[in-house]
Amino acid sequence: MSASTTNLTGPTGPKPKSGVTVASFFVYGTLFIMALYYLAPLYVMITTSLKTMPEIRQGDVFALPRDITFQPWFDAWRSENTGAVSRGLSDGFWNSVTITIPSVILSISIASVNGYALANWPFKGATVFFTILIFGAFIPYQLMLYPIVILLKNIGLYGDLGGLIIVHTIFGMPILTLLFRNYFSTLPSELFSAARIDGAGFWGIFFRVMLPMSVPIVVVAVILQITGIWNDFLFGVVYARSETWPMTVQLNNIVNSTFGEKEYNVNMAATILTGLVPLTVYLVSGKLFVRGIAAGAVKG
What is the model's pLDDT at position 297? Predict the structure, then answer.
């Protein structure tokens, strides 16, 4: 009896191998090489942004800076010519912040309600509505550029930050609705039924039951929207004017400037400054992003 008990409660199977094996060496070696491959451009950008132009002209892009200088960063932020005025990326940064925050809040708020309604409150024609909405996510943006220009001009928002907020909110809703609808579909239906039995209505269930359980998918949606809106160039260059250009448009004007000497250190500093916000978001909330995806963000 003791032998059978031991067989039932004790560990079974072969004993795990310790030490470095050929397979683990190959896996970790490949991962290390891939990490170097993807980190090399970032290393070059950082080191170049800290060098002076005479040192850059020597041509060794992988060399560490001998005399570290932060002047390229200050120039990129406050004095570099961005096409309209020579005030660097500072104006574009605040334009991007003004565009991103309301767009993220509005698109996620609307899409979460859409996904909740489609998953838990089916109505006549809900499938057709959902199909049309998802189809909108795959329409090339270029097909909609001119009609939206006319629309924004007619309502007096062409060239204003408000127009860009509307555009990003609308174009973000299809994919976000899909994410929220799939996530709410994975939640136990018993919670919804119990809330209805207790007398909770549409909004009561949404705010008291569904939304508190949706932190992982909200984080996924926030990351997707922040990175998508912050990195957008097409909508910024089409629907904004020089005073309302986002950071990406100003970066393009700095990097592609044809006047005077090509200041590679300033260009690299400007590029890092522009990508700093989405990079920080990924680093801070990366675990929650993976958790949200695993919890059903891509489950159909």
Answer: 45
Q: Closest Cα partner for 90 from 48, 240, 82, 45? A: 82
Is the distance from CB of 228 to CB of 172 less than 8 angstroms?
A: yes
Low pLDDT (below 70) residues in the chain: 1-19, 80-86, 258-260, 289-300
Q: What pTM was computed for the model?
A: 0.81
CATH number, span 90-297: 1.10.3720.10
Q: How far apart are CA 163 and CA 147, in angstroms?
A: 13
> How far, CA to CA in Å, does 211 sit from each of 33, 86, 287?
42, 45, 20
The alpha carbon dihedral of 200, 202, 208, 213 has a sign of positive
pLDDT value of residue 300: 46
Compute φ and ψ for 154, nearest 5 degrees.
Answer: -70, -30
Task: State residue 84's pLDDT score.
Answer: 55
- For CATH 1.10.3720.10, the residue range(s) in the chain are 90-297
CB-based burial label for 113 (10 Å; 0-12, 13-18, 19+): middle
Residue 265 burial (CB count, 10 A): 24
